[in-house]
Amino acid sequence: MNTTGPENPSVEARPAQAPLLLIVSGLSGSGKSVALKTLEDLDYYCVDNLPIELLPDFIRSLMREDVLPQKVAVGIDVRARHSDLSKLAQWRAAVARLGIEARLVFFDSEDDVLLRRYSDTRRRHPLSHGGLSLPEAIAREREITMPLRLEADVIIDTGQLNVHQLRRRVVGEFAFDSGDAPSLLFESFAYRRGVPGDADFVFDARVLPNPHWQPELRPLTGRDGPVRDYLDAQSDVARYVGQVSDFLDTWLPRLRDETRSYVTVAFGCTGGKHRSVYLTERMAEHARNQGWEQVATFHRELD
């Protein structure tokens, strides 16, 4: 197949309803395959392991179809050994000149997590040829994919996520239709397991009264009525909610004018079960009442 270079792409008319293109990349073992499968379940037209130099021709082939897919996901990573991943920005720009919105999502994880996952699955790392040990292959892959990580619109750290949580995260990020306003994801987490690496705003709920110390509330979560009633009755909670609401109402609308598609607002507490869950649900409801159409919630320690 002949390819048109990024310096001189052919200019074609933009389709009446151009699809959203997600370029899915990241480290091997970080969850890209799970993400692509989830995107396929969300009606994305998915192609994995595409050489980056074929990206414009792939889009052109879709544009010639009678029914153009409205959501497309393409997996690009180090398995395409002869592709220069550092040139992805050029090929991405070539796709943009065809009238297609292209966004890059990068999946990442800590080295020890990747090592454990490869140990558990006994899979072979794609760069383990040539006598490289697994730690050396992971280090080499980080080096090769660094230009993609630096360019990414969304970075998802999967180190603390199991398969079900990762699927939920992908649904929260990418199930929405593309629009002018960014999509909001409100997330709860436990500080003892670390702050989510991709959160845009983080609020600490550990200063609030803890339902954990109420024996009848301990087995429940912030989704349950008795916990909500308990926190609703606390004056400190009312003040906290009012101040956070004012902050978000002031600054989130500013993002409508930015080139942002997804914004994550995270609330953390000690166990990620009561206060953070309550605030996540309450702030998501508040955002919907303020007119935000694309709002999702994710509870890292529960989902």
Explain how this protein is built.
This protein has 9 helices and 9 strands. The chain has helices at residues 32-41, 55-63, 88-96, 111-121, 134-151, 163-174, 225-232, 235-251, 275-289, and strands spanning 20-26, 45-47, 71-75, 101-108, 154-157, 183-190, 201-204, 262-269, 295-299. Strand 2, helix 2 and strand 3 (71-75) form a beta-alpha-beta unit. It is globular. The relative contact order is 0.14.
β-strand number: 9
pLDDT below 50 for ≥5 consecutive residues: which ranges? 1-16
Shape category: globular
How far apart are the termini? 45 Å
Average pLDDT over all residues: 85
The helix content, as a percent range, equals 25-40%
Largest beta sheet, briefly? 5 strands, parallel
Helix-strand makeup class: alpha/beta
Q: What's the order of the H and E elements?
A: EHEHEHEHHEHEEHHEHE
Number of helical stretches of at least 4 residues: 9
Rg for CA atoms: 21 Å
**Proportion of residues in β-strands:** 15-25%
Biggest sheet: strand arrangement: 2-3-1-4-5
